[in-house]
Amino acid sequence: MRPFFSLLLALLLVGSTQAQDLLIRNGTVLTVTNGTLENTDILVQDGRIARIGTGLSAPDGVRVIDATGQYVMPGIIDAHSHLAINGVNEGTNPIVAEVTMEDVLDPYDIGLYRALAGGVTASHAMHGSANPIGGQNETIKHRYGVTNPEALKVEGAPRTIKFALGENPTRVHGRGRDIQPATRMGVEMVIRDAFSRAQRYQEDWDRYEAESRSDPRAMAPAYDLRLETLADILSGEVLVHCHSYRSDEILMLMNVFRDFGIEHLTFQHVNEGFKVAPELADFGAGASVFADWWAYKFEVYYSTAYNAAILAENGVNTSINSDSGELIRHLYHEAGKAQKYGQLSDDEALALITINPAKQLGIDDRMGSIEEGKDADIAIFDAHPLSIYAVPQFTIVDGIVRFDLEADPDDMRLMVNPETSIEAVHLFDAAYHDHAHNRCMQGTNFIHLASFLGR
Amino acid sequence: MPRYLPSLTVLFLALFALWPAQAQERDDVPRVTRAFAIENTQVVPVPGQRLEGVTVIVEDGLITAVGADVSIPFDAQRIAGDSLVVYAGFIDGFSHAGIPRPEPDTDRQRPEDPGNPPNDAAGIQPDRDARLMLDPSEKSLADLREAGFTVTHTVPRGRMLPGRGALIFTAGDSPSALTLQGSASMPIQFAGGQGVYPSTPMAMMAKLRQMMREADRRQRMETLYASNPTGLTRPPSDVEHLALFPVNSGELPVVFRVEGPLEAHRALRLQEEMGFTLIMADLEDAMDATDALRERGVPVFLSLDLPEDKLKDDSTGTYNPDFRTASYADTEAEAMNLKARQKQALERRYAHAAQLDAAGVPMAFMTEGAKVGDIHENLRTMVAHGLSEESALAALTTTPASLLGLSSQMGTVETGKIANLVVTTAPYFDEDAKIKYVFVDGALYEMEVRERRAAAADGAAVNPVGTWSYEIDTPQGTYSGTLTFTGSRDDLSGTITSSANPEPSTLQDVEIDGNDVSFSFDTGGMGVASVAMTLFADEVEGSLSLGGLGSFPLTGTRTSGPDRR
User: Fold this and answer.
1) Cβ contact B203–A148 (<8 Å)
2) Is A110:A413 a contact under the CB 8 Å cutoff?
3) Using the beta-carbon criterion (under 8 Å), do B197 and A93 form an inter-chain contact?
């Protein structure tokens, strides 16, 4: 149920990403899904990985990148970010399933280039966590340089939506406005109630569709974009990514989803995931975590740097995300931390930032590993990316070099304000130091404890 | 006359009570004649053409003749046009002219459930109508008129869906007389509900989808119900969805006010989904959206506002797009390059109109957001950056007429068209061109034109010594007095008098820099007034500020001086 102009869109995208052929010669290729290949070449044609092998020859005029002594890995994928969007939270209503980040993409965001400088080629531009059921997210590629917002989208990527449990939604709606949900119980009821209404909505439309076949005077039920989107979740068309911390609420949501027959679920943050790792694996839910970031509010104290490793060892599809314009620049460090604490293998650690998030976003058929036929999204490092000394040299998206450490000029802005000399730079966004004010909650009215107690 | 704070009125009475106020203009005197002849003049009948030595006849609100050999009605007011140029009256693509600003709502209650606010709190008011909000005494109308605009597409002030726009004249005795056409457009803008749904651009887009699709459903149900209501549940109805029916069917154009290329893409996206008729408004910089606008045939109302050149006095050099500093400590070279890039962005913005025009995007100018006093200069800047005078004039006359469906009524100086005319003292795009007369719907408005500034042109320093008579424009009328400078440019002093205070007040802190003079004086009881003004050969122009009351335009002419005894 997405009556958009997909055909035209696809044409538009082809036009905006003119693929470029490329030969990456003699690198150490970290395929992630097929081990490490020494002294290996990768031939890129039409934006795809055409061949992987040794002694490949480049057709005339094809650019050659000499990767001798360098490490070639799949482009890093961030399953939780807020880059390249205008606005994060529509925090006014506990349910805003009808809003979608794809409407407000901002290809001019310099954050995309900074992410490229950290080897990140795709990210999940998410709605914030102010609502039990937030807006729809958009999976984007970091094609920095395009200016049409449509050209950032990953064509054909499944739709996803943001849910949120715990302190954020209860603070905004319950404490802030004295409406449901004020408690974790309330969050559950808001979600259950929403799904029940969506079921009735779908039934009404199904009945109408059937009636209208025989009765030309059948009247359509009221149109409701919000309920329509929720019905798309029930039918499995939209994948759910849920902001969560505590194990009890994680179990709660899995129970709710079982009751409504919803299968596609990835928990975001999920700091207490290690407590319920077998249950997550049993459900088939994914987990997208921080390596070692916690204690920024009460519900995030019970945490451990072993979280990613414990989840992965228990068979949970686990990724490490940034949720930050700063952290996204060194997700390979974050994967390295998970390896240091949890003794993961190199491939297991790299999978946390490549193929695993690709699976969580439903794009693993095209991204997340170096395989023939996959998109040529590639990051080249001067040392092993899990080494603290590694520095990204090239980042390639669809076969186009979008970051080149040696060649790129200092000023990579696409849009310049003629009325401001130098725009303010907030590299260390507040999120890194105080998650409570992070971009997940941008645009919401924040109720401080002091004002709460004073009421 | 707009409302002023009582305190201000009282203070002005105290200050100027005994001054001989000039008689205020009266609007209620019947006009002597509705026939006019601008004789032996230059006419630009349509952009790109020029007629010399012709006479333009206006009768009963219409242009009845344009030609060299026309007979002048016996009762016509004759205007010698030999040094004047006649253009079609300008048509403004988008303004809030004639619509009073609402009083600030100080005790606005926050809706109980911000997620489901009443439509008016959410800014969803497509049922409103600009025609019902008009106040002919709004100063915005006179301001537009003085800038040559005779008709404007005025839009209710508001948020996302502020209400339907109307086409109005910039002069008229009553709201009905102002109105040319109601329900001319459905304006939309990305102005979210304040703390209520929809507050963000993404929610506004979702809400528009929701309302348009539901309007579509209801429109189909209405048709079905009208054909035979028996046995059918009555369709739901509310004024907001009802107002969107003509948008849904494409009859009423959406005028989407957007800021830059991102919002333009969003508006285009909604149009693609819903198929409404679209005009893009404001659009300070289309950037890459220009191609999409051309391909989709979406016209633009382009703002007459331009950013100020803040780097005027800086040396900026040439921008090097490949620039890399040798060391992060070398900030000077980097700063230089960043400034050069900013300058380039500024030049690009000045050339934006030319770029749209060259791309073949139909373009009309709009005044909302621009200072009326800057319009002439901004147009000249656009012309200096590649926009042809012909295209600029078309964007003020024929193109808006065509976009707003008015081509058969106005936009050119041709027989049979409504007598909306702009009469200038020189070709309009000349630096010195002033608007001398404006005809709105056949009625003549004469503008004050000051012929002067001889000394300013060659930059020579003017000696202010001597006496000057001055006038100050205030909301309560025009006041006058005498200003006397003594000494020399190097040692300037002086006094100021008025009939309220025949005893001269001594000027304090007199400073002169080039031809800019400033001083202050004690008004006696009203505190200290400060004046800043610029000297021309025999005239001064500036403003008088009175703490707390604001600033008022001051003009003066020399009555005696060192070179004029």
Assistant:
1) no
2) yes
3) yes
Q: How far is CA B69 from CA B38, B44, B187, B420, in A?
A: 13, 17, 46, 22
User: Can you tell me whether residue A291 is helix, strand or coil?
Assistant: coil
Residue in chain A lying closest to B342 (CA): A418
Q: How distant is the Cα of A441 from the closest Cα of chain B, in angstroms?
A: 14
**Token pair of A137, please?**
């997210």
Closest residue in chain A to residue B199, using alpha carbons only: A90
Q: Which of B397, B286, B303, B277 is nearest to B94 (CA)?
A: B303
Q: Confidence class of residue A81 from pLDDT cuts 50, 70 and 90?
A: very high
Q: A318-327, B382-391, B421-430, B518-527: which range is least confident on average?
A: B518-527
Instruction: Give the pair of three-digit tokens for residue A99.
Output: 């809003």
**Least confident piece of the model among A27-36, A81-90, A409-418, B540-549:** B540-549
Only one residue has tokens 């497509």, namely B126
> Which of A222-236, B203-217, B476-490 comes out lowest in average pLDDT?
B476-490
Q: Which residues of A touch B288 (CB under 8 A)?
A: 147-148
Of A98, A100, A179, the CB nearest to B113: A179
Residue A435: pLDDT above 70?
no
Interface test with A, best of B112, B116, B159, B200 (most A CBs within 10 A): B200
Token duo for residue B383:
């012309």
Q: Which residue in the set A89, A99, A148 is minimally distant from B288, CB to CB? A: A148
Q: Which residues of A touch B193 (CB under 8 A)?
A: 92
Residues B163 and B14: their CA atoms lie apart, in Å, by 43
Mean pLDDT, to the nearest integer, of B391-404?
98
Asked if the model's pLDDT at residue A104 lies above 60, the reply is yes
**Which residues 144-183 in chain A show a CB within 8 A of chain B?**
147-150, 177, 179
HEC profile for B248-302? HCCCCCEEEEECCHHHHHHHHHHHHHHCCCEEEEECCCCCCHHHHHHHHCCCEEE
Determine the Cα–Cα distance for residues B192 and A225; give it in Å rounded to an integer.
19
Encode pLDDT of A313-354 as tens digits.
999 999 999 999 999 999 999 999 999 999 999 999 999 999
User: Which among A98, A148, A222 has the least Cβ separation from residue B265?
Assistant: A148
> A222 and B217 in contact by Cβ < 8 A?
yes
CB neighbours of B74 closer than 8 A, spacing ≥ 6?
none
A407 to chain B, minimum CA–CA distance in Å?
9
Amino acid at B330: D
B310:A87 CB<8 A? no
Tally the C-alpha atoms within 13 A of residue B415's C-alpha that lie toward its C-beta.
6
* Set of chain B residues whose Cβ sits within 8 Å of the Cβ of A8: 272
Task: Answer whether A132 touches B (CB < 8 Å).
Answer: no
Residue type, A61: G
pLDDT tens-place string over residues B195-253: 899 999 999 999 999 999 999 999 999 999 999 999 999 999 999 999 999 999 999 99
What average pLDDT does this structure show over B166-175? 96
CA atoms of B542 and B477, how far apart (whole Å): 17
